[in-house]
Amino acid sequence: MADNIIRTTAGAPWVSNEDSKSAGKRGPLLLENYQLIEKLAHQNRERIPERTVHAKGSGAHGTLTVTHDITKYTKASIFSKVGKKTDMFLRFSVVAPESGGAEAERDVRGVAMKFYTEDGNWDLVGNNTPVFFVRDPIKFPDFIHTQKRHPKTHLHSPTAKWDFWSLSPESLHQVAILYSDRGIPRGYRHMDAFGSHTFSMWNDKGERYWVKFHFKTQQGNEFFTNEEAAAVIAQTRDNAQEDLYGAIEKGDFPRWTLYIQVMEEAEAERVSFNPFDVTKVWSHKDYPLIEVGVLELNRNPENYFAEVEQSSFSPSNIVPGIGYSPDKMLQGRVFAYADAHRYRVGTHYEMLPINRPKFPVKNYHLDGQMRFDEPKNGDGDFYEPNSFDGPVQDLKEAEPPLRVSGDATYYDHRSDGDDYAQPAALFHLFNEEQKQRFYKNFAGDMQGVPQHIIDRQLGHFEKADPEWAEGVRKALNDMKS
Ligand code: HEM
Fold this sequence. Notes:
Blueprint: H1 34-44, E1 56-66, E2 85-94, E3 109-117, E4 120-127, H2 140-147, H3 158-166, H4 172-178, E5 193-194, E6 199-202, E7 208-217, H5 226-235, H6 239-249, E8 255-264, H7 267-270, E9 290-299, H8 304-309, E10 322-323, H9 328-344, H10 421-427, H11 432-445, H12 451-464, H13 466-480
Helix pairs in contact: 2-3, 3-12, 4-10, 11-13, 12-13
Bound molecules: protoporphyrin IX containing FE.
């Protein structure tokens, strides 16, 4: 219909958008004024639940261009030849704030990427840090409870945070990064991104490699001090969105260089450390960065809700040539995300334009919420096996078999390796000014935390390096006086 009149969701002309229909000039209103009811009902349904974590975010469209050949490691179509460009969508986020929260907070940043490859969507859902706070998914909900609001006071609770961290020594590495200068990036363009977990790749000979993904910002890593961040938050809660959106609008497209670190499959059994522990990095000397390509963000979304709020990323979305690893956290995440989307967005969330692959998808899923396209016709498309040429499985795309060993039981994840050496190595990279800011960042955030909890955390700093503990102790004393 070429006219320019408002229509109801059923297509009928919208009779009055200024005045409700009432019985007499002074009312009351008529229940039959269904157009008023439709309008009010739609307003009631304008929100979907915000993400339980990473609720505040910014998204942009872009491309990944392959600049170096890695086909000896992977048969993934996205990396099939130098020069290949793949469309993608990326959502940055802060973890703890609600969807209206401030972006210049000290917090980890999320970097979720969806690559629309010829073999389906590959989602790499990482952070701006190469490690994480916990190494067993059963601890993730506990950890997040300490980052969100206290159930009684509805306030953030430094006591809960430091209690949990001081009782979870595996968190020290991520905590050290968070309280360093990297803890408040000056916007999303000015930070690196990581897949964080160990993933796998396999080539067309069926040889598997363990892989870590690194995206180095070409804009340079830049940060806010606590004081600068407080001044920013006093002016705007949306500094990161303003910066990213503004840069892309004026054609200043941010770029990251993609590198991988690679370990041969069999080597994982020989190395002294657990290569599947997300609280650890791999030495760059032993596993040098291999350049792969360039990620560029070059188009802002047309509609924030449709493209950013409804974008749904999941580590379970892999494609032939790229797979998971035995990392326990990654295994937990393979479940958690698609489950979150079915609840938060709806059963057929992957049919939405932002989430769906760029080619028609056939499968035997049937009805349910949001079943709005590709209706089933009846023959050969709603059960399998069938005699009507319905779509069939593709076993040749199975990843190479993975050898596993060991008894199934509850292994103590806290007995798995040294929690102090890598945070100490990071600490030793800081110059004196960086160390002073580091101490103050801890001390500032520990205000009001019971002394026995602070002492327990100081004990971890001490084990990493006595100078670190001493520096924080002194900063705490300075704040008292
Ligand atoms: C077992 C551990 C974890 C669990 C159970 C978990 C679970 C979740 C859930 C339920 C969401 C909200 C999803 C949504 O509603 O759209 C989420 C978001 C997110 N998580 Fe995790 N997470 C875990 C660990 C991690 C780790 C280790 C990273 C990074 C390396 C990470 C990065 C992200 C990012 C970037 C988002 C936001 C995605 C977006 O922009 O839509 N998470 N996580």
